[in-house]
Amino acid sequence: MTAVLPGHRPGVDSFRRDGMVFDVRDGGPADGEPVVLLHGFPQDSAAWTAVAGELHEAGLRTLAPDQRGYSPSARPSGRSAYRLRELTADVLTLLDEAELGSAHVVGHDWGGIVGWALAAWHPERVRTLTALSVPHPAAMAKAFVSSDQALRSYYMALFQVPVLPERLLLAVGGEPLRRMLLRSDLPPDVAEHYVQRMREPGALSAAIAWYRALPLGARNPVGRVRVPTLHLWSTGDAFLGRTATEQTRQFVDAPYRLEVLEGVTHWIPELAPERVAELVTEHVRAHP
Predict the structure, then answer these.
(1) In the predicted model, is pLDDT for residue 8 greater than 80?
(2) Is there a catalytic annotation at residue 266?
(3) Which residue in 108, 211, 231, 283 is the catalytic one?
(4) Is residue 18 annotated as a catalytic residue, yes or no?
(5) pTM above 0.90, yes or no
(6) How buried is 122 (Cβ within 10 angstroms: 0-12 exposed, 13-18 middle, 19+ buried)?
(7) 126-132 vs 229-234, strand pairing mode
(8) E-assigned strands of 197-281?
(9) Is the pLDDT of residue 6 over 50?
(10) Diameter of the chain by CA atoms?
(11) CB of 52 within 8 A of CB of 59?
């Protein structure tokens, strides 16, 4: 898999914030409805390659950044730099750089959490939200005490330990991380791409810092969402269960639609791109 999205053409290929430079893949027709694509852990903008190609064919413009910690020139040290307020501010800066007052936001995994926060805190900048895999954070919190979600999310506690997770995952040239990704059905070339990106200096520590910053956000909860929302969840997801997914509706005060993908594992953008693009296109056109 290549990190260059289909339809790439001159546009917003990077943006700056606080002295950092973020890489961006800007594709599709320049006058198309803008769709921001936010990746998760341990992905990068390449996660959206196939989805973006389908969206371009549908006449939509896509902007897919390598987010904080994933862009080589945007890897600050310390967990406080990865608080959710900082992550959402990065996306707002991208919109400003692209001269967009608002855009449709699509996020997977951690990108979905950023999307939920953007929609709750800055609804004037979000035309629609599409959240893949990850439920609303408040629903996730409830599920921790009412389902098996805490067991599914064991790695989040492990990631709070300094240094050790990086050493474990990157041992023997990243073989443990590679095995983990392959076991969850990612194609070998895609898994290898993510492993090599995480082997870049400081990349895995920066990516794990998103988790380590979670305790710092307790005073800034993600509130209710008041923009049209599409939620995609897959039955084969080993990390995120049904309970939080089904409870998410109560935190959205706007048109809401849940789509369940049968038999797909956590990596929805890579494994079901045609269906994702079809649903996103329908959602965008229903709420321009």
Answers:
(1) no
(2) yes
(3) 211
(4) no
(5) yes
(6) middle
(7) parallel
(8) 229-234, 256-261
(9) no
(10) 49
(11) no
| DSSP summary character for residue 176 | H
Domain boundaries, the chain: 14-286
Alpha-carbon dihedral angle through residues 172, 22, 225, 134, given to the nearest 10 degrees:
-10
From residue 198, how far is each of 16, 104, 175 by CA, in Å?
22, 28, 12
86: DSSP letter = H
Which residue of the set 23, 90, 109, 237 is catalytic? Answer: 109
Active-site residue identified among 56, 136, 266, 283: 266
Dihedrals phi, psi of 251, to nearest 5 degrees: -105, 10
From the candidate CATH numbers 2.40.440.10, 3.30.160.60, 3.40.50.1820, 3.50.50.60, the one assigned to the domain spanning 14-286: 3.40.50.1820
User: Per-residue pLDDT for 10 more than 90?
Assistant: no
**Catalytic annotation on 104?**
no
Query: Which residues touch 157 (CB under 8 Å, ≥6 apart)?
Result: none
Q: Classify 206 as helix, strand or coil.
A: helix
Angle of helix 110-121 relative to helix 84-97, nearest 10 degrees, comes to 80
